[in-house]
Amino acid sequence: MNARRTENQKWQNRRWWLVLCVSLLILSLAGCAGRYGKLVYDEAVDQVFDNLKVLPDHRYYFSGPDSRPDAIIAIDKRFTLKSDYWKPVEMTTAKLKHWIENPARRGRFYPYTYGRYILSDKGQRIGLWYSLRDYRAFATVKMLGDTTVQVSTPIQEAYRWRRTPFSNNMRDHN
After folding, report:
1. pLDDT in tens, 4-19
2. 47 CB-near residues (< 8 Å, 6+ apart)
3. Alpha carbon of 96 to those of 67, 68, 73, 93: distances in Å?
4. pTM of the model
5. What's the domain count of the chain?
């Protein structure tokens, strides 16, 4: 009788662990749930910025130093950007020219530009993204409501290349 009771206890312990693991899996997947948009490359976005065109129906924000931002976004005025990190700016052609053509800024990066449309979870154009480095692998677009969006800022180079126990980058930092 004791052997049978021990087998039942083992089975109940396994069942309890199985329920716990399944519950944790469901909770972790629920934490990832949300309405996410994306960044989509289009040469037309590069041309908007390279031609110094300021869109009147968009609000402009930047990330990085005031003198040479890492990225610039233009969000359609029908949408609200929720962010503590993007800095709003009253965009003018002169300011855009200073940022786009700044030799100190261009010298830090490759000569290519990364113009992207910011799309909602339904594929609707929310705005434009422009940077001299490809941050798309690190950028997220999350819809917080029908007209509220959250766009992550570019990750700093020091953070990106930091060696971690699980990293496989070949860049050596001392």
Report:
1. 667 767 667 777 666 6
2. 115
3. 11, 10, 12, 5
4. 0.70
5. 2
